[in-house]
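Holo prediction — 2-acetamido-2-deoxy-beta-D-glucopyranose.
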Amino acid sequence: MATQNLIPLLIILVSAILACVEAQTSDQTSWAKRNETEKEVITTLQFYFHDVVSGPNPTAIRIAQAASTNASSYLFGALWMIDDPLTVGPGPSSKLIGRARGLYGSVGQTDWGLIMALSYVFTDGIYDGSSFSLLGFNPVMKSGREMAVVGGTGLFRLARGYAIANTYQANANGDAIVGYNVTIVTYV
Ligand SMILES: *[C@@H]1O[C@H](CO)[C@@H](O)[C@H](O)[C@H]1NC(C)=O
Ligand SMILES: *[C@@H]1O[C@H](CO)[C@@H](O)[C@H](O)[C@H]1NC(C)=O
Ligand SMILES: *[C@@H]1O[C@H](CO)[C@@H](O)[C@H](O)[C@H]1NC(C)=O
């Protein structure tokens, strides 16, 4: 075969190699990297949330309201700041495993409902220092109410999931002990 006939072949070969290199490097950019080897972890949690609004030592205090709030049967427009203990069992002396800190506010005009914007911060065992963030509507008079877990820190980094809450005990003042079942997906 003459040398002249080899030149077009060489050009095709080099072009093909260059196209391959281009295809490989276009998966990565200087500003974003993908790693598809991560594995999911599913964590389920069960604990009790102690919300005290009455008496000398409330864990939830009303910090703001609208002029019309007290005329509303459902305190529409009131906002509370909370620091509620989280325990393993429902009893007051049950082991403390963390605290729920943040805000909830009355959003129901025709029935009871709270918008929850809270960080559940744990202090026990391997979860010490880890937290998840909960954001969602809480129809407090219903059983099996569901709220979204929208993020987290520490072992709950990149969390997504949901919480199912059931009132375990409540009194006429509005103090309540609420059972939580939480399912969280994170990555290894
Ligand atoms: C992808 O993630 C895994 C697990 O974290 C890690 O072992 C591996 O080195 C990562 N690969 C790259 C290319 O960063
Ligand atoms: C509404 O009621 C609360 C609790 O009884 C009271 O502290 C607050 O001052 C009242 N607010 C108004 C605007 O009347
Ligand atoms: C979690 O869900 C189970 C099954 O419905 C229930 O028996 C349990 O009491 C719940 N835990 C809490 C803390 O509410």
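READOUT: The chain has a mean pLDDT of 90.
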